[in-house]
Amino acid sequence: MQLPDHGANPHHVYEKFGMTPPMQILDFSENVNPAGFPERVYEMWTDLMAKLTIYPDPEAEPFLSAAAHFHNIGKESLFAGNGAAELLALVAERYRDKKAIVVHPTFSEYEATLKAKNVEIIRILSSEEEGFSLPLKELIQAMETASVLYLCTPNNPTGIMPGRDELDKLVRRGAEVGCDVVLDEAFIDFVDESLSFIPRILENAHVTVVRSMTKMYAMPGIRLGYIVAAPSVIEEIKALAPHWNVNGIAAHIGAACLTDEPFRERAIKQSADEREELTLFLRKHGCLVTDSVANFLSFTPGAGQDVRKLYRHLLTRGIVLRHSENFIGMDGKWLRVGMKNRAAMNLLKEELSVWFAEN
């Protein structure tokens, strides 16, 4: 059975199984901020209605200026887009008919967008036995014949953040052999902004950073993200993009969100607290758990427990986790859990406790 390739939209999962969804569903398959978007978005909503009758700024203002100020970089190093999905498609066009390295398990959109551009994929697996750490030796060797290396930092679905030394080695190797590096930092704002590669982008023209506003600010419905790269790369990407690719409401909401530091601090703490508590709970029940630093984690039950039966059992209880059927290297044996509020996390643990006691 081919399950949906992404989290969220849980009704599609129930349709695939031919199941009637319960009245109440807790969707742990998506990993946006459970607090919702910042309060100031509510406060500005009436004013935003006036934007509906006005063409948006073609440069995605005021968002572009807000992002430049947030990262202390020039606007010429930034490009805003209709979510990370559009941005990844635009980046992939730069490597049409070339070779790209993708480290699995990871976000499926890298390969999807690259294959659409006739890019040859070099798959390298990070192993479960090594805790899904980056296979540096294989990567360094593969970069000799590739045009680009894609890395998710921190990785989705494991939540593991490569060390600074590891990234430095790969970036240096890329400069030596002419292999670009694309860093997807969609979840780094749940960790520590100081870990972002963005401050070093101008001295590493072969590195492109993709960022998403969806996860931290809980606004997947309006689609907003941005790329940070050398000005020459930004000009290439702008030439590929359609005009007015960022809607006006998204641009104004995004600009407001970037000014809300207390909101980010609360989200980081809440995510870390719930992740650490769930990790302890799962390990206590014999599960293997990834060393995630993000607002999600992946786990696999202990010996003798069928992960697919657990997944389906939780569906009957109105709890939707993210399956790993389409994560190469996990192959359905792991489940990903996005962090939610305390009440939802407690309900999840209650249901899991019942399962572990009976299986």
Please describe what this structure looks like:
This protein is of the alpha/beta class. It folds into 2 domains: 10-30 and 262-358, Aspartate Aminotransferase, domain 1; 39-257, Type I PLP-dependent aspartate aminotransferase-like (Major domain) (Aspartate Aminotransferase, domain 2), CATH 3.40.640.10. Helices cover 38% and strands 14% of the residues. The protein contains 13 helices and 12 strands. A hairpin with a 6-residue loop joins strand 9 (288-289) and strand 10 (296-300). Helix 4 (63-71) runs parallel beside helix 10 and helix 5 crosses helix 6 (109-115). It is globular. The two termini are 24 Å apart.
Topology overview:
Elements: H1 10-17, E1 26-27, H2 39-43, H3 45-49, H4 63-71, E2 78-81, H5 83-93, E3 99-104, H6 109-115, E4 120-125, H7 136-142, E5 148-152, H8 164-177, E6 180-184, E7 207-212, E8 225-228, H9 231-240, H10 248-257, H11 261-284, E9 288-289, E10 296-300, H12 307-316, E11 319-320, E12 335-338, H13 342-358
Parallel strand pairs: 1-11, 3-4, 3-5, 5-6, 6-7
Antiparallel strand pairs: 2-8, 7-8, 9-10, 10-12
Share of helical residues: 25-40%
Calculate Rg over CA atoms: 20 Å
Give the strand content: 5-15%
Determine the CATH superfamily of the largest domain: Type I PLP-dependent aspartate aminotransferase-like (Major domain)
Number of domains as seen in the coordinates: 2
Summarize the structure.
The protein is of the alpha/beta class.
Structural features:
359 residues, alpha/beta, Aspartate Aminotransferase, domain 1, Aspartate Aminotransferase, domain 2, 7-stranded mixed sheet, 3-stranded antiparallel sheet, 12 strands
